[in-house]
Amino acid sequence: MNKIIPLSLVAVASLYASEVQLAPINVESTVITQVSQNAQVSADLAQALSTNVPSIDMNRRSGIANDVYIRGQKRDNISVEVDGTKVCGACPNRMDPPVSHVLANQIETIEVIEGPYDVETFGTMSGGIKIKTKAPTQKLHGEVNLGYGSFNYTKVGVTLSGGNDIIRVLVSGSSESSDQYKDGNGDTLSQQTKKNASVNGNKYQTKYEDMRAYKKDSIMSKAFITTAQDQELRLSYTANRSSDVLYPNTPMDAIRDDSNVYSVEYNVDSVNDIYKNVNLQYYYSDVDHPMSTEYRNAGLGGMTNTTNHMKTTMQGIKLKNSFDIANHKLLVGLDGSERTWKGHYINNNNGATKGTSIADTTTTNMAIFAKVEKAYGAFNVSLGARYDSTELKSEDANGDTQNYSALNANIFTAYNLNKDNKIFLGFGQASRVPDARELYFRKGPNQVGTPELEQTTNREVDFGYETDNDAFKLKIKGFYSMLSDYIYYQKQANNVAVTKNNFNNIDATVYGAELSASVYATDTVTVDAGVSYKRGEKDKALAGQTDKDLSDMAPLRGNVALNYEYKNNSIASLEVQASDTWSNYDSDNGEQELGSWAVLNLKVKHAVNKNFDFTLGINNLLDETYAQSNTYADLTLVAGGAIDIMLLNEPGRYIYTNLTFKF
Question: Which of 334, 512, 632, 663 is most exposed by smallest CB count within 10 Å?
Fold first, then answer.
């Protein structure tokens, strides 16, 4: 049996012991492979990540385009890159998080960085996600992917790639849609809102109660051109078009989410014996995101029939130089980026502008970074540093120019006890600046943003043990994070709603541990497991509050999967996913206790031949009713009563099939 189960937890930490030469340290990250080959449930990347990486939780918002948290950190506290480019969501309410602008069936590998250990990327304060999509091949290759599932889920995906010694081209397209899923109680998305929303205006109009949950189309094209020996020009363009995406526990739905991502990259290998590589990349992305109340009862009113039309752009240029000097692997680079973000409210009845949600704001970053790796026998050391200078300019009435600077640095070490066992220890510090929403966001006459915010700094220690032998693979990792000037949303003070300057700088700590393991029971049977636990605490409660629990800290969660390879490349899997009760939560700022849950999933992937795979799966076989995402007031959610916010239940029993043809 192949001892690397697709989409199982694969630590990048391969420090194979030898006399003096060791592979680079990568134990600070986790990699999942063969993502596109295993994205049968949907193209929602958040679901694939949360299922397969213990440190990641998914925040359920809809049937698609859900968000990810790394160790309870989200938004600008973590970074997301796709082939070196950055896409920023336009929605201040996270309807279009960065991971939603790439489809899982276009992805080859994903690296998840846990902690402040990436100096190449702006904003990797508490973690990051680096996505690598499919590259063009010289040999003609094609793939057709057809999917169908419960709730009328349909997907069609096609990929073609080929070329010659001079040029290689890839074109990949995908289209998928779904009706509203039903939870374990049999309630659709609109029925959950109808049952639980306490404000009638947030419920769906009768004529829209049975509308489709979403439609998403995407196309990715690449051309790699050999310009000289060891030199290559790489061009890429990705377009995503989503329409009518329902967000049932949010007051608005997305009319559309349209994004474009362009990249031009020039790569030179083997400049000389010391100068190993130089890479220069320019990228540009834009997102257009109007969200509206028009499908809700609020859309029947005069002033409440509203659209918040948000737009953002991101462009950047990065130069990386790689050297091998006296067995020191050195990376030196320059990084610059500029993001714009703006939005305004529109009266849907007459098209008149009602006001600004985010005044036109530009964030400009310039940075220099370096990283060096060196092996000393069985001991590996990696050092990294980055200096950032960032400026924010806004047209907001309270928007004075904000300037921030930060020195980010880390050291990560690993010691090979023998060829199968290693221990590792890392220390890191990284900062991130506040964004335009946190500084300047407005709801009607109220400025929710706080223009005087300081940047947040994370100082963290990570440590652990890893073994990889013929019988099993095991990785245990602990961390302790100290957050200074952590940007935090305040809902109320002394039980009175806060309506202005809701964001505060606080100090807090987050600590926890993750475990991932694969046991090779026989040549055909493997058991995979993953567990995570984290806890977050404010140093002191916010003014007018008493709760010191930090938000978004999901409780003890884990999964165990039994995999049986009954023939070559054909695997049957039985998986249990479970969560403890969410009992440590920030009740002062919108969170609530969530019950424990456990679900059973079944899946068979059958290779008919080398060109044809068939997959049949059932998620939540026992049709359990449960919610895994809490209701921190940082998101604008629908009220579910006098006190609580509406929870959104996960899908009930979901049956899916997938056919893949390759040539």
Answer: 663
Distance in angstroms (rounded) separating the CA atoms of residues 322 and 324: 7
Query: Residue 102's pLDDT is what?
Result: 87
From CA 655, how far away is CA 206, in angstroms rounded?
28
Q: What is the pLDDT of residues 607-634, one digit of tens each?
A: 999 999 999 999 999 999 999 999 999 9
Backbone angles phi, psi at 138, to 5 degrees: -80, -40
Distance CA(542)–CA(111), nearest Å, equals 35
| Residue (of 645, 632, 653) closest to 59 by Cα position | 632
pTM for the whole structure: 0.93
- For residue 348 the two structure tokens come to 């849907």
d(CA 484, CA 145): 47
Pairing of strands 306-325, 421-432: unpaired
Stated as kind and residue range, the H or E segment containing 49 is helix 45-52
User: Long-range contacts of range 187-191, CB-CB < 8 Å, 24 or more positions apart?
Assistant: 187/649, 189/62, 189/63, 189/213, 189/246, 189/248, 189/648, 190/246, 190/248
Return the ∠ at Cα 130 (arms to 124 and 135), rounded to 5°: 155
Confidence of residue 301 (pLDDT cuts 50, 70, 90): confident
* Residue 256: CA count within 13 A, CB half-sphere: 8
Extract long-range pairs of 418-421: CB within 8 Å, 24+ residues apart.
418/17, 419/16, 419/17, 420/467, 420/468, 420/469, 421/465, 421/466, 421/467
Q: Could you report the per-residue pLDDT of 379-401, keeping only the tens digit for each?
A: 999 999 999 999 999 999 888 89
Helix (H, G, I), strand (E, B) or coil at 90: coil
Gyration radius from the chain CA atoms: 24
What secondary structure letter does DSSP report for 204? B
User: How confident is residue 41, by pLDDT bands cut at 50, 70 and 90?
Assistant: low
